[in-house]
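Q: Got a minute? One more chain.
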Amino acid sequence: MYAIPEVSTIGLTEDDCKTKNIPYLVGRAYYEENARGQIIGDLSGMIKLVFSPMDKKLLGAHIIGEQASELIHIASHVMLHGGPIDEFIDAVYNYPTLSDSYQYAAYDGLSKHTEWLNTNKTKNGS
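A: Always. Here it is, folded:
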């Protein structure tokens, strides 16, 4: 959606997952914590990754802020081949760019995934 701020989305939202009873986790990165976001003065932008806790497969990505319509293509490429959020960490991004925020959203998601794994180990008595 071309608006101010820009909004772009692909795949499932958190609400979609809730409605369809699909387990999910979320990783977020904020432009205010990104050097390029600070340079361009967009301190309210955000990238959100929605992913499966079972295999870390990317289910959806949502971006609000500068260049959202350009950045969404990175997530669509990962989704096209059913990739996990780890792909954002393994990728190399120019610095400072907003695309680098994908790595931080993935790291945030992986920390939540670790919490999820530990919670499930406790529930299952492992």
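A: The mean pLDDT is 95.
Q: Perfect, thanks.
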